[in-house]
Write a structure and sequence with these properties.
The structure is a single chain. This protein has about 280 residues and is of the alpha/beta class. The protein is about 45% helix and about 20% strand. It is globular.
């Protein structure tokens, strides 16, 4: 089968890795796979990793025209898809690329990976929102919900990759969609085996995600700061694409038993998973 995986970026950090691992898994199953992403949001290391797995990578250049540049690139995507003639398109992208995929005329499956709301509150954090901020935040939330609705309306079929996302989709959009566990993990995660932990040692907590206010790392840090140091509890926060203002705030309020690591290699991330006692 000829499969086109349409993503937002060829990037190995955070949720951007998911479609990459999916494309690599499709190749292992014997399919011919093409991976699409925006050129300006991708990096060469990720591109090389994808291509080394036998996936054909096609990066789309978006015209640098404010507001409409991404939508114009949808035409380029559609034209390219018509040339390769995929049997199916799997997309984890934003609205412009979903429109481009739809215009190609091939069957389109969208994977819903969650809806991030309250972006305006993230922008002004740690400032307390006033009435104008609340109004602005609600307007942006409405636009985000509308954009996501258009995404699954343009798609022929919608799935999620977790039960949580399926429940969220039903709550926000009033539709039941199935969750499909992809089951693909990076090689670095396969090289480690669980070791027995010594219960007399300190308890090591680990939290991994994008470092933005929406993820609530500040709340987690506040909780750890309130604990008695004699408990021997330490926390490591690992994240990618940090909000610089938020990262600076976290470093300012964290205690000495909290470590923050930004954009580590997969091998380093795997080691932290291995050494930690509890994931939070």
């Amino acid at each position: 089968m000829r499969i086109a995986v349409v993503s937002h970026a060829a990037e190995t950090h955070s949720g951007s890795r998911a479609p990459i691992e999916l494309a690599k898994a499709f190749v292992k199953l014997g399919h011919i796979v093409y991976f699409y992403a925006y050129s300006d949001l991708s990096n060469h290391q990720a591109k090389n990793e994808i291509e080394s797995a036998g996936v054909k990578v096609i990066l789309i250049t978006s015209p640098k025209i404010k507001y409409i540049g991404r939508f114009l690139s949808a035409v380029t995507l559609s034209t390219s898809l018509k040339k390769i003639k995929p049997d199916i398109i799997s997309t984890q992208a934003t609205l412009p690329f979903i429109i481009g995929s739809k215009l190609s005329g091939f069957p389109l499956i969208m994977t819903y990976m969650g809806t991030q709301k309250d972006i305006w509150f993230d922008k002004i954090f740690p400032q307390n929102p006033n009435l104008l901020d609340i109004l602005m935040n609600n307007l942006i939330n409405f636009a985000i919900i509308l954009s996501t609705k258009l995404q699954f309306m343009f798609s022929d079929y919608t799935i999620t990759f977790s039960k949580f996302c399926s429940k969220e989709f039903n709550k926000l959009y009033g539709k039941s969609v199935p969750n499909v566990f992809w089951g693909s993990i990076p090689k670095t995660m396969k090289n480690f085996k669980t070791k027995k932990q010594n219960l007399n040692k300190s308890i090591k907590l680990l939290s991994v995600s994008r470092i933005i206010p929406y993820k609530g790392f500040h709340t987690l840090i506040e909780s750890i700061n309130e604990l008695n140091p004699s408990l021997g509890i330490s926390l490591t926060i690992i994240g990618s694409n940090p909000n610089k203002k938020y990262l600076s705030y976290l470093k300012k309020v964290k205690s000495k038993n909290i470590n923050i690591l930004v954009n580590p290699r997969d091998e380093i991330l795997s080691e932290y998973y291995q050494k930690s006692d509890i994931y939070v």
